[in-house]
Amino acid sequence: MTSAEGRSGGRTALLVIAWLWVLAPFAYGVVELIRKVVGLFGG
After folding, report:
1. How many whole angstroms separate alpha carbon 1 and alpha carbon 18?
2. 26 to 2, 13, 31: CA distances (angstroms)
3. pTM for the full model?
């Protein structure tokens, strides 16, 4: 493995972690929003 391949793999892992860091709270917020909307209009 060359050094360029190693950097690319590390960069990909960092990119995946960064997206999870953003998407996890966003997904939680969407789930909570749906629960509250259902409670407000459906319950």
Report:
1. 25
2. 37, 20, 9
3. 0.66
DSSP per residue over 19-41, as a string?
HHHHHHHHHHHHHHHHHHHIIII
Q: pLDDT means per 10 residues in the chain (43 residues)?
A: 68 95 98 96 82
Q: How far apart are CA 40 and CA 34, in angstroms?
A: 10
Query: What residues contact residue 35 under an 8 Å CB cut-off, 6+ apart?
Result: none
**What kind and span of H or E run contains 3?**
helix 3-37
State the amino acid at position 22 in one-letter form.
V
